[in-house]
Amino acid sequence: MFCRAKTGVLTLLLGSSILALVAMIADYWITVPLPTGVLHIGLFRGCDEQQNCFTVLGTESTKDLLLSVFIIGILTLPCGILEVRYSMQGSLGCLMYVGVISSVLAILGFAAMVNGAVNLRPDQPFSYSWAFALGWISVIMAVTSAALSVYVSRVEPAAPLPEPQAEAGTATGTQTSSNPPGGVISPINRFIQMLSRKPTPPPS
C-alpha cells in the first residue's frame, strides 16, 4: 500500500515538474484569431501559421517561476526515490520534506500561472491554449503530491532502528547507542542505521 502511494507521489512530482517545463517553452499559451489565420503566443515568442515569429517581452518573471518549479522538483526526486526503494522497511522521514517542497512548488506554479495570465492579455479577442492548461495541471499535480506525501508520512510507521550494541573492550560492559539525545533521529541517520543493520544469525 505505502509503496504504491510513494510511487504515486514521485509520479505526481515528476509530472508536475515536466509539465511546468513544457508550459514554459511551448508557444501555445494563447491563440489570437486574425483575418489571415491564427496567431499563437507563448512566453518566449509568438508565431502565425506562416511561421512568421516575434519575441514576446514582459514574461521573464513567469518563465523564472516555472523554471524554478522544474529545477526544484527534479532535485527533490532522489529523496522520494529513497522512500520507494526502502518502502518495505518503513518510513525514512523523507516524505514529509517532499510534501513541504511540493507545497512550495504548487505556490510557485500558481504564482507563475496568474502572472502569465495577466501579462499575456492582448487587446484583440483571444483564447487560452493547451500550454496554459498544462501549466494549471502542473499546479494541481503539485498540490496532490503534497497532500498525498503528508498523509502517507503521518500514517506509515517509521523504519525500525537497529538494537544498540555493546562497545567492544569496555571495562563496564555497558551498551552504547548511536541515537542522538532525546531520541530525535534525522532521516539521514535513520537511513544510515537501516543500511548498517546486520542480519541476525540463525540459532545454532
What does this structure look like?
The protein has a domain at 2-24 and 58-118 and 130-155. A hairpin with a 5-residue loop joins strand 3 (45-47) and strand 4 (53-55). The longest helix is centred in the middle third of the chain and has 26 residues, at 60-85. The chain starts with a helix and ends in a 9-residue tail after the last helix. It has a five-stranded antiparallel sheet. It is of the alpha+beta class and 204 residues long. The protein is built from five helices and five strands; from the N terminus they run αββββααβαα. 54% of the residues lie in helices and 9% in strands. Helix 1 runs antiparallel to helix 2 (60-85), helix 1 (2-25) packs antiparallel against helix 4 (130-155) and helix 3 runs antiparallel to helix 4. It is elongated. The model is unreliable at 166-178 and 181-185 (pLDDT under 50). 29% of the residues are buried.
List the helices and strands and how they pair.
Elements: H1 2-25, E1 30-34, E2 37-41, E3 45-47, E4 53-55, H2 60-85, H3 94-119, E5 127-128, H4 130-155, H5 187-195
Antiparallel strand pairs: 1-2, 1-5, 2-3, 3-4
Helix pairs in contact: 1-2, 1-4, 2-3, 3-4
